[in-house]
């Protein structure tokens, strides 16, 4: 790779922690206010104890004068506690919203920068999950968890501090049932993270089974396999619910025991009976036992709030991991000194490539495609044809060697410029939501209506477009419908308009019937004129006239020449040709047989 290739500008690999940094002070302020709120909410409890103390004091001359400041302190404590908590949560929610907006921008930026090959490996569902669902899951982590955590520590600690100030034995009494809860809780939480991950995976299987069912519904019905598809879904649901039940049942039992340990009557019973013993045996004031009981009842509430948020917090952590992973995907490297290709010739120079380090897919490929020539890539399935073609528009970058376009390494051409030079027509045609005209103009937004019509005529799709009442303004999927072959011709018209000098064709007629294939071939013959074309071919009869045929086998270029030359050599290509023709013959014989059978039956 050239020295000056840089990761895309402003593309330091951001991570979640780094993106959260600007909002951290806001979160901290929220946490401090949350802690203050928790601290001040202790005041009413202390006030109630002091009120009780006043009522029980026999020699107060004016009780009203004495209780007014205490009542005032209780009300002020309540109000302050509420205000601090609300403002604290308001700040963390603001931080969350700002961070989400920033993260969304960063993720969308990242999606625009990852190599195109990344999209071949990730489903749209996975991308949507990262950009939408995972961001939603982060909400608890930023907006709630830390405030709740602060309150769960501050309030019990302050309460215990107050009780210790009264008498250390009271503090001990207040937390007497807590160890039961903590030990059971620690037991419940063993392996919680892994179990959640497993449940996540099981749930993903349920989702995949639904998607498979919906996507394949036509095939499933045609083959009367609705029952089987239902069975897959049911199996996934049953596995999920079995695992969930197995995990959750002991937890529910344990939770019942622990909730009992923290329930108000049990805590009051322990505090009051322990308190009574202390009053009798140590001389502690009965009123201080009231303080213990109030604080002891209050402590579990904060802990329960925290534990109830634990699942949300675990989900948020998993989501944060996935977001971090997406943010960490290496962007397509771009050059700081872009060069302009000179011409439309292609050269693969000692090209090697591997998707994973341990398994080379292409090895030392040397292939020249002269400007304006057509090169067909042939070879058995898995030989590496698509991978080699994808190196030209940089779906992936070579591991070794270089791909040169117009004498310039494709990595030295600015990506936008590269896409202007290299067009591709893939087997799976993608039509976007919008009008026919919008779809055609994708490659050239300023194309005139006449340009659109010329391209559509050349691609043999003009007549079909005119069959819609709205013509070129028909909305695809609403007013306009295209069969596979028609969509293929529309995408050829779109590529014609884009007018890229180099074309990658991934067997555009692979799934077409003979009539449609003839029309696509006609459209293609227009498209390939005066362009450098690299075509991945499976139907060998369509490429007998091309300038050169490159034969790949096991990731190596084993032969290159014209159809005649390669047949004369009698090696790999000759064998492929023989196999192809006998397969074609068999297919024809079978379809002939089918026609005869249908003739007889009618
Ligand atoms: N995204 C990927 N990650 C890992 N391996 C891959 C990936 N895409 C393809 N491969 C592997 O690389 C090898 C070459 O695949 P490629 O699709 O280039 O072959 P092909 O000759 O085009 O095959 P076909 O004619 O069946 O389309 C295969 O072994 C394939 O399993």
UniProtKB/TrEMBL annotation:
Keywords: ATP-binding, Membrane, Nucleotide-binding, Transmembrane, Transmembrane helix
Pfam annotation, one family: ABC_tran
Localization (cell): Cell membrane
Topology of this chain in the membrane: Multi-pass membrane protein
GO terms for MF: ATP binding
Primary location group: membrane
Transmembrane segments: 26-46, 66-91, 147-165, 171-188, 260-280, 286-307
Highest taxon of source: Bacteria
Keyword Membrane: yes
Domain ABC transmembrane type-1: 28-315
Domain ABC transporter: 346-579
Protein name: ABC transporter ATP-binding protein/permease
Source organism of this protein record: Microbulbifer spongiae
Lineage: Bacteria, Pseudomonadati, Pseudomonadota, Gammaproteobacteria, Cellvibrionales
